[in-house]
């Protein structure tokens, strides 16, 4: 601890300056990460419950869903696409 006690006022000023710059840079990085994660999570959330028509056709062809389920899910997928198209157009 003798090293800290032997620092001059000029050296303490440099330590405070670089410590402040480091702190501000860390806060800025945290804000950037927070915003990016929120934006990526929002985009993933919109697509989480929707299928594209090709996926639905493959599921029907494999027998994972029957014709009635296919038609119902296709209608929902088309409606979701229309809502997204309307949002992008406005």
What this model shows, in words?
84% of the residues lie in helices and 0% in strands. The chain has helices spanning 2-5, 9-47, 53-62, 67-89. The model has no long low-confidence stretch (mean pLDDT 85). It has 90 residues and is an all-alpha fold. α3 runs antiparallel to α4 (67-89).
Set down the secondary structure blueprint.
Layout: H1 2-5, H2 9-47, H3 53-62, H4 67-89
Helix pairs in contact: 3-4
Q: Radius of gyration, Cα only, in angstroms?
A: 28 Å
Which residues sit in consecutive blocks of at least 5 with pLDDT less than 50? none
Number of strands: 0
The percent of residues in helical segments reads over 70%
Mean residue pLDDT: 85
- Through-space gap between termini: 64 Å
Q: Report the sheet-strand fraction.
A: under 5%
Q: Based on CA inertia axes, which overall geometry fits?
A: rod-shaped
Helix-strand sequence: HHHH
Question: What keyword list fits this structure?
Answer:
mainly alpha
Provide a short characterization of the protein structure:
This protein is mainly alpha-helical. The protein has four helices and no strands.
């Amino acid at each position: 601890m003798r090293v800290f006690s032997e620092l001059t006022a000029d050296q303490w000023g440099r330590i405070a300056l670089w410590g402040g710059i480091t702190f501000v840079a860390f806060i800025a990085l945290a804000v950037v990460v927070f915003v990016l994660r929120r934006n990526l999570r929002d985009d993933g959330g919109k697509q989480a419950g929707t299928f594209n028509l090709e996926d639905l056709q493959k599921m029907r062809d494999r027998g994972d869903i029957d014709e009635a389920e296919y038609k119902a899910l296709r209608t929902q997928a088309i409606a979701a696409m229309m809502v997204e198209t309307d949002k992008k157009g406005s």
